[in-house]
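PROTEIN FOLDING TASK:
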Amino acid sequence: MTPVWVDARDGDVLFNTAEGRAKPRRLRRDPRVGVFAVDRHDDYRWVSVWGRAELTTEGAEEHIHELSQKYTGHEYLGGGLGERILVRIHADRIESRGT
């Protein structure tokens, strides 16, 4: 498990990673994935999503900048880690509490 920045589009959960990291290597071997998000103001309000990951480089560079703006308010400056990969999770199961 690792923390990641996430967003949602068209009913899917998206996050971003880079080539050469463990996430894309493991997701190519086994695309089953889960994401768990907790409201920072209320630990009893959370959502959990399980599904299958689809990896693409298309739009990944733009996506990491969108996520950085969302989470930090600044452009993403962590370049040089390898080609960016957009991970789209097609949900098979969703559970939540307090939402």
